[in-house]
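Lab channel / #folding
Pinned by the channel admin:
"Please post every new chain as: sequence first, then the structure tokens as a reply. Keep commentary short and put observations after the output so the thread stays searchable."

First post following the new format, from NK:
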Amino acid sequence: MSHTTPSNKALVPFVSVDHMMQLIHSVGVPDMLRELALYIEADFKRWDAFDKTPRVANHSETGVIELMPTSDGETYGFKYVNGHPKNMSEGLQTVTAFGLLADVGTGYPVLLSEMTLLTALRTAATSALVARNLAPKGATTMAMIGNGAQSEFQSLAMMAIAGITHVRLFDIDPAATAKCAQNLANTGLVVTSCDTPQEAIEGSQILTTCTADKAYATILTDNMVGAGVHINAIGGDCPGKTEIAPAILQRGDIFVEYPPQTRIEGDIQQLDPDHPVTEIWEVLAGKTPGRTSDKQITIFDSVGFAIEDFSALRLVRDKVEGTDFFHPLDLLADPDDPRDLFGMTMRAKP
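Reply from TO:
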């Protein structure tokens, strides 16, 4: 039975974790990543259509809870997301999320969805979309430093969208590397498990850092990074959390999603507030060049931005239409007379 057109217009499609997993398997992971990249690229190319603001963050000693809103004037979207690195030691997810789309004209929600899985997919799709535009031509190998929940998505997206064939894994926890290597077996990637980050970087044209600790960490030191590589820095995503040595940032050309947010949360929080950066939407829209030489170091200082979540929710909304991959949720009061909310309540008395 299709849930596409509920008889009660107040029912809101809700995509659960189980529904999202069904959708992913129905589409296939590589195609899901490619389609996400297409939606993200399309929205970045109409950057000026969106309301933009740094995410609203509530920080605590153990982590952060954030709201990420945006609108293109017709549809409004937001994501609720947390980041709690200490959760991993307690057997909990470091990041959880859900998101919503609403019609700007009425204010009514049109989709509610889990976004823990979807965020991992959209982050990977964004990384690979940017790498396709910034990485050295013919790049085949990525170093994946940090083999936690994002690592498989990142690796598969780089294969599906940026064309890599080899991934070299490193994590300070060998069990995480073993997990990632096992999950990537039989995917078509050639996987090498490494004992040090230096070993992982050997022969890699793309260096992805994705670590969880909320600390001023230096995952990549200056002497580890040679000319001509593309760095995909996705782990530094809140104040006080970094991964890249400042000297590398000084040597490279830095690309970001939304500077007012990245200067607070990204690796560039270590630099002067007026240090030059390029907004990645300008590259995707053809307004400014990306990589300009073989020896250039390009750095994508990615912290995640609301438009990427908006794009991902748009894709899910389109994909679940005509399927059973959602549940009609009784989220909105819908009295026969909009003025008679009390009467509707009283008529429901047992």
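NK: Residues 1-8 have pLDDT under 50 and may be disordered.
TO: also worth noting, The radius of gyration is 21 Å.
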